[in-house]
Amino acid sequence: MKLSASLLNTAWVAAQLPGYRRFLRALRRPELEQRTRLFHYLRSNANTTYGRRYSFGTIRSVTEFQERVPLSTYDDYEGAVADIRAGAQNVLTRAKVRCLEPSSGSTRAAKLIPYTADLQSEFSRALAPWIVDLARSTPAILGGPAYWSITPAMSDAHGDLPTRTTIGFESDSAYLGGWIEWLTARTLVSCDDLKHATELTQFQRHTLVRLLGQRELRLISLWHPTFLTLLLDAMAASWDELLRAVAEGLPSTGRIRGTPPNPSRARELATVDPIRPATVWPHLALLSCWGDGHAATLIDELQARFPTTRVQAKGLIATEAFVSLPFAGAYPLAICSHFFEFTDTQGRVHLPDDLEQGNTYSVVVTTGGGLYRYQLRDRVTVHGFLEATPCIRFVGKEDSVCDLRGEKLSEGLVAGILSRLLPALAPKASFALLAPESGGGAARYVLYISTPDALAPRLAEAVESELSANPQYAHCVRLGQLQPVTIARVDSNAAARYLHRLREEGQRLGNIKPAALSPLTGWRETFNC
Fold first, then answer.
1. Same-domain check for residues 379 and 416
2. Which residue range(s) make up the domain with 148?
3. CB neighbours of 524 closer than 8 A, spacing ≥ 6?
């Protein structure tokens, strides 16, 4: 254990104690904390363009807020985001927009989410109780550095448009802002510059060399479990080369920093087994990653590779909002972070203290970034309560979304792509369906298409290009979590086979609608192709 790392981590945890105590109080009175959050937004932003539109300054109750301000989607903010990007102030929030953070959209390739100091503080308020609770339950995390994979290594999907507002954060710790950002940055293995990597092999090599140099690594926090399993596979496949790179160091390349020589660590690594990563980082105490939805089936593989390391599923976190967090063995709502509402299957709106155990709802948030009654399209189930605060787990997206590796492809996005491409590249296609395919360790999307004409040679390339406008999809392909899309030609009976398959899956024939995207795998067998 390095004393400096232990002291920095202890100082970081100590800095979270006020937020931890506030969260404990709020768990008992969520309705009071939520009302405080809402009226902070209304008072602060009453004189913004959006606040004047809905007369924020005259709203006196939660009910009045709900009656006056409509539920919203990203489409409702498109004009405001364009104004902010052009440099306009006081549009959605009085606070200055520090950056526009890219995120996947349901009907478009990417959204730009405004980030203000208030929104950064809200993320910090959710992080605080998680970190303190984690330090109490797994104190070994304090003994060394952590590796967080937060901002994906990708280019700006909006880079061809003029802007006077920064697109994306420069570092992972910048999500938090202020002096907490400064302190957090000093507890992490620094990999922020690797977002400038242009090739997967370059990204993996530099990431691995930096991680291999950290014998005292204590915590790895990432999103999808396959991010780490692919990294570990690359480590085992290029072990000797990596040992040389650790011993000799890596030179700087463009905007990517080099690493200093570390021959003593290289000699130590030469005595361990890369197939058993627990021997590479013997003090790793925690792996934090997605554990709900499709990712739940992949956590067991991580646990098998790190049998003595605690693997903890994350709460529900979106670019727009921090919804729930791991705490005291449950996943309570991040009650101090934003103002939350929930819609049930009949479209009725509920506040957190009105939720019922066992029921499923869709999440609606109002945040310090200027999103008001914003529908996240995330479906959650209430699994119980911590004090008076509901504990929730992510079930899936409200609209049809495929999320094998964190790519978040939606029905609306794929339908738009096919409607643009097929008239020119497959004008006589009678059936087209994009679906995931996995097996043998690889995963990819396949476009199943029925057409009497010869397929245009560049159809797969065109579809891949359009899908890659989604930043999460492009990130997964760059990391090797997904292979590029392929085309599979199906016969004229494809539509009938599609209906038969969905009937076998339990859907009523009258409820089956044509779809551009299916989350199901195994379509090659269905279509016999």
1. no
2. 3-68+80-153+167-313
3. 437, 446, 488
